[in-house]
């Protein structure tokens, strides 16, 4: 069992940066691949980025490549999402999730989810 708590969301102007954190409980955090997803009002939840348990592999959605960076610190049971050059279309609730089955882009692979943190980018 893994419990996830996101933090770091907020209101930022276009072109600005935010760093999201996701703190995990449990001693098995390092065995999970971790992902970030987002959901804008009226839209389906979409994949943003994911990282393998070791941190050696990462995936990014095309819409965030070159702007967002995922990282993890297994000693601190935390995964991070550094978001730069933010755009209004990045506005959404951001969720972190844990996958026991390995790094993946589909929500079905993720067994545990946080409650989400709101990111709002003003133009």
Protein architecture, described:
- This protein has strands at residues 4-7, 10-13, 18-24, 33-39, 46-51, 58-60, 68-73, 78-83, 92-99, 112-113, 117-122.
- With 123 residues, it is an all-beta fold.
- The strands form two sheets. Strands 2, 4, 5, 6, 9, 10 and 11 form a seven-stranded mixed β-sheet that branches.
- A hairpin with a 4-residue loop joins strand 7 (68-73) and strand 8 (78-83).
Strand and helix layout:
Elements lengths: L3 E4 L2 E4 L4 E7 L8 E7 L6 E6 L6 E3 L7 E6 L4 E6 L8 E8 L12 E2 L3 E6 L1
Parallel strand pairs: 2-11
Antiparallel strand pairs: 1-3, 3-8, 4-5, 4-9, 5-6, 7-8, 9-10, 9-11
Structural class category: mainly beta
Shape: globular
| Strand and helix order | EEEEEEEEEEE
**Poorly predicted tracts of residues:** none
Number of continuous helical runs:
0
Strand content: over 45%
Task: Estimate the helix proportion, in percent.
Answer: under 10%
The first-to-last residue Cα distance is: 40 Å
Main β-sheet: number of strands, strand sense, barrel status?
A: 7 strands, mixed
pLDDT average, as an integer? 96
User: What is the number of beta strands?
Assistant: 11
Computed Rg: 13 Å
